[in-house]
Amino acid sequence: MGPRWKGKGSELKALANPISNSISDLQSSLIESNSQGILSGSTVLLATNPQQTDLLNQTCFGRPVITVDKPNQWFQFSLEEAFYLYHSLKCIKIVDGNHNIKTVNELWDYMVSKRASFPDFFKAYSHLRVKNWVVRSGCQYGVDFVAYRHHPSLVHSEYGVLVFSDGNGNRNGNDRLRVWSDFQCTLRLCGSVAKTLLILHVNRNGEDVICSSPSCLDGFSVDEQTITRWNPERCREDQAAVN
Amino acid sequence: MEIEDWAASSAGSSDSEVTLPDSDNEDHCYAYGDLPKLQFRKGGSKARWKEELGMAEIISNKGRMWITTGIMRSGKLYSFLEDTLFMAEIGALHLLDEMDKRIPLEDIYKKVAEGVGGSSWESFEVYRHLKSLGYIIKRHGVCWSMKHDKNVPAFVEGESENGSEERVSVTEITELLSTMQIKDARLVFDVYPPNSKFRKSNPGKPMFILCINSGNPPTKKQIKDLEGQCEGIPLKFCYVEHGRVSFFSFNEIELAVLP
């Protein structure tokens, strides 16, 4: 399944505006305004100026929060998104409710305490973002993320992404999609919205089971695998046409 | 048609989203007495069941089905239990025992239940599903045909290309077939696309090799191990639940780096 562009001109528009450029502009703008996000539960809230609002929308980081606060726009980020801005793009700082700027280790510990699989999820998220894929939450579709080739207004999402934590401890089976009905369920969901199921296998490669700092991420590796259903009836029709 | 509509609504689901890649059309609930009945074909083939081989030897073959079914050894045609049962179910084959007495369908089902010749009900269901759609299916690890000189035992197995063939006796074949049942995820069938010009003497490469998982879905490691045994031919997995066969492919990809 290749990219499905929405309407005429979308593909050209996408080519003319590479995601990497928008991200780079976003990075500069946030650094310049010394932006600080507020850590609240499993969310980081950020006030943005109009230019940053635009860039965040273009690159699909976070969700706008509707308020009457003018001229600020507020955005909320997931832990992965916030940490990506903070640690990978290094363009925001993060404070707690008491205005204390969090250190990288404090943030890391906090996020891992919220979710033990945060390191794997973050690795998967950043794996996609580094390749300039647009990544959003997949919870509406029963997956972890959905990945788009460009902005969702220009192109349909290609992949429904699940993150597998491989090779951690002795396990004979998968830690997700453990039984066949899991496959059926996820594939049906993905298929009905025309996405391919993409599994990102995150391997810790023997890094500490308790990943104590973000530097452990360097030792992680990510393997990509798609799972597709094969339909012998459909295939046979194609085959007959060929023969 | 009324019955089908009722079946669809009682089955419950119909996604209203974009496209459903697979259809639920096969879900028919039959009213009593409506079950389709297959007619026994006139002039069906005859085969004798060889207990020691776990296979049938075809005595008289009628019809074009044998072009794509069964294996040739020393000019004789043999069929595995799934081939035999498939033909028997559709009335294309009379199976006889050593006394030339007809073996009823019930006894053939019992052979499958016993796992004779490395068979299983699940693998038969998969076989039947694909065979009915016109695919050409052969047990993995077995050649379509081999010719021999008269000095060689009646039944052999091995590579058919050049002269260096591994010759094994009948008992080793039976051992090979019985070990096929031990592992859970194993390579079961070589599947070829529907092809009216198929020749056992020159079958070409299979379209894919099929692995049947009765237990849990395969892990990445298991997939890798099995792919290693496929010599570059695509691998597919399937499992059977309640008479429904589902097929899956696991594909390693490299996601593009976008601009």
Folded structure, characterized:
The complex is a heterodimer of chains A (243) and B (259). By secondary structure, chain A is of the alpha+beta class. Chain A has a single domain, classed as Trna Endonuclease, Chain: A, domain 1, CATH 3.40.1350.10. Chain A has eight helices and ten strands. Chain A has helices at residues 10-16, 19-32, 50-59, 79-88, 104-114, 118-130, 180-192, 232-242; strands at 36-40, 43-48, 63-65, 73-78, 93-95, 134-137, 145-148, 159-166, 196-203, 221-230. In chain A, the strands form two sheets. Chain A has a five-stranded mixed beta sheet. A five-stranded mixed beta sheet of chain A has the order 6-7-8-9-10. In chain A, strand 6 and strand 7 (145-148) form a beta hairpin. In chain A, helix 2 runs antiparallel to helix 3 (50-59) and helix 4 (79-88) crosses helix 6 (118-130). The longest helix of chain A is centred in the first third of the chain and has 14 residues, at 19-32. Chain A starts with 9 loop residues before the first helix and ends with a helix. The relative contact order of chain A is 0.12. Chain B has one domain (2-33, 40-249): Trna Endonuclease, Chain: A, domain 1 (3-Layer(aba) Sandwich). Chain B is built from six helices and eleven strands. In chain B, helix 2 (81-89) packs antiparallel against helix 3 (105-114) and helix 2 (81-89) crosses helix 4 (121-132). Chain B is of the alpha/beta class and 259 residues long. The longest helix of chain B is centred in the middle third of the chain and has 12 residues, at 121-132. Chain B has a six-stranded mixed beta sheet, with helices on one face. A five-stranded mixed beta sheet of chain B has the order 6-8-9-10-11, sandwiched between helices. The relative contact order of chain B is 0.10. At the A-B interface, helix 7, strand 10 and helix 8 of A face strand 10 and strand 11 of B. Strand 10 of chain A pairs antiparallel with strand 11 of chain B.
